[in-house]
Amino acid sequence: MSLKDIQLAFSKRFGEMIPIEKLDELIAALDRAYFLDSPAFHERERVVREEFLASPDRPAALAGLCYDKDPAKLRLELAAFFDPPEGPGRVAAVKQTTPLAGLIAPHIDPRRGAAAYAYAYHELMAHELPELVVILGTSHYGAGPELFSATRKNYATPFGAVETDAAFIDRLAVRYSGDLFADEMLHRGEHSIEFQALFLAYALGICGYQVVPILVSSFHKLVESGITPARDSRVGSFINALRAEIDADKRRVLILAGVDFAHVGKKFGDNFAADQKVAERVQSEDLGLIENIKRGDPDGFFADILKDRDARRICGLSPMYTQLELLRGRSARLLKYGIAMEPQSESAVSFACLAID
Question: Which option is the CATH number for 59-356: 3.40.630.30, 2.60.120.10, 3.40.50.720, 3.40.830.10?
Answer without folding.
Answer: 3.40.830.10
